[in-house]
Design brief:
237 residues; mainly alpha; 3-stranded parallel beta sheet; 10 helices; 3 strands; 52% helix
Length: 237
């Protein structure tokens, strides 16, 4: 409409993004466990055979530089969402739009965006391995993605003792290296930065792994209930 466009690129520490990124690919049918996926991602920096889109999205320095080249550095804002509360991104977008922050903040809890527990992620890996090749994409989206995966995530809140997906130390090391390179590229791009770029370079603390994989009954029920519901609505049951 002739109005100047502004590009906003939200950023998180890569080490924090790894488990959630892998879980997003699980919802597209990934059949590989977390650590083999990580090794594929970092084996050749900037490429991945299993999930080729990963570095197109998560090579933060390159992403920001592409947008700066396309739109001009003065029209690109990089937001570092580290050490801020959940409302920060909504508040920043409201400021850029010149609207009352409550218009956006009031809507941030409409859907759940929590990560899967280790057991939930393992269930989806194994299920994908068993059924993905037997389903076309529409069936997969309906039954597995909108049914099983969404049902587990949005259908319940995990107990505090349910283990989360743990990133191994070597991958946290690699993520910190990539984060340092990204921060330098963003500084050189001339874009406007909100937050501290150095937060992208931090090596996150080691996480506890090798925990028993026991899926709570209520997680299984939430997944199955949702799968049955969407299948019935779609006329498959």
């Amino acid at each position: 409409g002739g109005r100047p466009a502004r590009v906003v690129v939200p950023l998180l520490n890569l080490g924090r993004l790894l488990p959630s990124s892998c879980q997003q690919y699980l919802k597209y049918g990934l059949t590989t466990d977390y650590e083999p996926w990580l090794r594929d991602v970092f084996e050749t920096p900037g490429s991945s055979r299993m999930t080729p889109t990963f570095w197109k999205r998560q090579a933060h320095g390159a992403v920001v530089q592409r947008w700066a080249a396309a739109a001009g550095g003065d029209r690109v804002t990089a937001i570092v969402l580290e050490d801020v509360d959940r409302s920060a991104m909504f508040m920043i977008f409201a400021e850029l739009l010149g609207i009352d922050p409550q218009i956006l903040v009031s809507r941030m809890d409409l859907t759940s965006n929590r990560s899967m527990t280790a057991a939930e992620a393992e269930l989806l890996v194994r299920l994908n391995a068993k059924v993905k090749k037997q389903m076309d994409w529409t069936e997969y989206v309906t039954v597995i993605r909108r049914g099983v995966a969404k049902g587990m995530v949005e259908g319940r809140e995990p107990e505090s003792d349910e283990a989360r997906v743990a990133t191994p130390a070597w991958a946290l090391d690699a993520a910190a290296v990539e984060g340092g390179q990204a921060a330098e590229m963003i500084r050189a791009s001339g874009v406007h930065v909100v937050g501290e770029l150095d937060a992208l370079t931090l090596r996150l603390p080691d996480e506890v792994g090798d925990v028993p994989m026991q899926l709570p009954i209520d997680a299984a029920v939430a997944a199955l209930r949702s799968a049955v519901s969407v299948s019935s609505a779609d006329g498959r049951a």
